[in-house]
């Protein structure tokens, strides 16, 4: 059943570049576009920017480093965010080696390495500041609702907020929604895996000091509860910390598609139930939890995989596993092949991979002339996306897309017509890393 709805909608803005979504990719895109001289607007459905870090509650710049050496493989705005949050001293981000925050085994094996740990509230403040300093027009509490496109050209983006429905008329659109909402509603081709990675609702426990040994014992408690039928599907548990005096858990697992509202709703309802079940199990069985406090669950359940745009090039598992080079590289990937299973509980195999190139072509939806994507909706196979979907990589893609959009506007060209050599030159000049670095850099030992 359907009906035709007609309404006159005001055009409220005509920016050069419109970024849809202010998560990690969106921040990178908006800041880069504005710094490139484009009049830039970003719309975000939440009351804050930050995506995974703030809406899902996380702290890890996944994909930031080559795990074995600790050397950064994504720079630029990622470095700047770490410095703005006070995680590292100004000017030092590129000079340090780092551990992966979420992997306590590496943290304990390499105590000399820095930890790129990001508190959600610090991230909110830093995101507000970097967007404001760049001159980005930020519109929060504003959800992309539809797109008007004709013959592969986006003419208007319809946004829903407290004013009602409004139209924005940009020259270039960058879809950083994670789910490829704007691109899909414009009519761009996309794909979905038959079996999507499950969603997760993170939760945070105060007055708790996480260690690798504690993680092992938390896992043992959950495994026994699962066997007794007291707990259904769950992940890990994977735990990390914001301060060293608390822990956040990536441990709930809900199979479904977060582009289906009913699935996303149930992921959050069931996620809260499972989070409390886990916490109460640990309180009963582990002494460390005796004085612990259930502080918060994430405002939203995080989706790992949904729509993948069909682009000019599709990143493949072979690209990732073999560390392949591409002439139009705009950011490096380095996260493991981390494909969460939708039908099994506990830990899963996460294969290490070498740093690899992500081509600019994966950000260009086929048959569209003024549309870019960045983040986990870029053009990749499901297997490749298991690596490329993560936070630092998404921010690097966003920086590349925003820089390209500004170049397109300045040259009165389409994003596809941008000179990739010039794009790469600007990315390098702004701290981007387009070649896997050597391991002989300064080893840092900051006090966190």
Structure at a glance:
The chain is of the alpha/beta class and 448 residues long. The chain has helices at 24-35, 77-84, 104-109, 120-134, 181-186, 212-228, 261-285, 317-321, 382-388, 391-410, 420-429; strands at residues 11-13, 17-20, 40-43, 65-66, 71-72, 137-139, 143-150, 153-161, 164-168, 172-175, 190-191, 203-206, 234-240, 246-252, 293-297, 308-309, 329-333, 356-359, 371-373. It is 29% helix and 19% strand.
What would your notes on this structure say?
The chain is an alpha/beta fold. The protein folds into 2 domains: 12-194 and 304-441, FAD/NAD(P)-binding domain; 203-297. It is 29% helix and 19% strand. It is built from 11 helices and 19 strands. The strands form 6 sheets. A 5-stranded parallel beta sheet has the order 6-3-2-10-19. The protein has a 4-stranded mixed beta sheet with strand order 1-9-8-7. Strands 13-14-12-15 form a 4-stranded antiparallel beta sheet. Strand 4 and strand 5 form a beta hairpin. Mean pLDDT is 93; it is low at 439-448.
């Amino acid at each position: 059943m359907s009906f035709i709805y007609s309404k006159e909608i005001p055009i409220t803005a005509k920016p050069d570049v419109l970024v849809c979504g202010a998560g990690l990719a969106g921040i990178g895109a908006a800041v880069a576009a504005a710094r490139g001289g484009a009049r830039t607007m970003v719309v975000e459905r939440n009351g804050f920017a930050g995506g995974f870090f703030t809406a899902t509650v996380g702290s890890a710049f996944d994909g930031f480093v080559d795990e074995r050496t600790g050397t950064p493989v994504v720079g630029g705005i990622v470095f700047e965010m770490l410095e703005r949050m006070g995680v590292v001293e100004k000017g030092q981000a590129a000079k340090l080696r780092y551990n992966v925050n979420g992997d306590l085994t590496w943290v304990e094996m390499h105590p000399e390495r820095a930890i790129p740990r990001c508190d959600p509230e610090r991230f909110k403040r830093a995101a507000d500041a970097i967007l404001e300093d760049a001159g980005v027009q930020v519109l929060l509490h504003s959800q992309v609702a539809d797109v008007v496109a004709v013959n592969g050209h986006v003419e208007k983006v319809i946004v829903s907020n407290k004013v009602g429905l409004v139209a924005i008329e940009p020259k270039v659109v960058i879809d950083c929604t994670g789910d490829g909402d704007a691109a899909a509603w414009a009519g761009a081709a996309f794909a979905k895996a038959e079996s999507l990675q499950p969603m997760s609702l993170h939760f945070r426990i105060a007055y708790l000091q996480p260690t690798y040994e504690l993680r092992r014992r938390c896992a043992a408690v959950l495994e026994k509860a699962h066997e007794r039928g007291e707990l259904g599907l769950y992940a890990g548990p994977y735990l990390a910390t914001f301060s060293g005096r608390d822990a956040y858990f990536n441990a709930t697992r809900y199979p479904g598609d977060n582009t289906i509202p009913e699935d996303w709703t149930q992921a959050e309802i069931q996620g809260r139930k499972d989070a409390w079940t886990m916490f109460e199990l640990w309180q009963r069985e582990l002494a460390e939890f005796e004085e612990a406090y259930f502080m918060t669950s994430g405002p939203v359940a995080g989706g790992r995989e949904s729509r993948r745009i069909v682009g000019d090039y599709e990143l493949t598992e072979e690209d990732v596993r073999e560390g392949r080079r591409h002439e139009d590289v705009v950011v490096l990937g380095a996260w493991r092949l981390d494909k969460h299973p939708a039908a099994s509980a506990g830990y899963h195999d996460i294969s290490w991979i070498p740093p690899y190139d992500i081509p600019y072509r994966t950000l260009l939806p086929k048959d569209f002339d003024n549309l870019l994507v960045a983040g986990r909706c870029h053009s990749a196979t499901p297997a490749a996306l298991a690596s490329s979907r993560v936070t630092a990589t998404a921010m690097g893609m966003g920086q590349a897309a925003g820089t390209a959009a500004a170049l397109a506007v300045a040259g009165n060209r389409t994003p596809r017509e941008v000179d990739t050599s010039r794009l790469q030159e600007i990315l390098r000049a702004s701290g981007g890393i387009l070649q896997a670095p050597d391991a002989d850099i300064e080893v840092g030992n900051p006090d966190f």
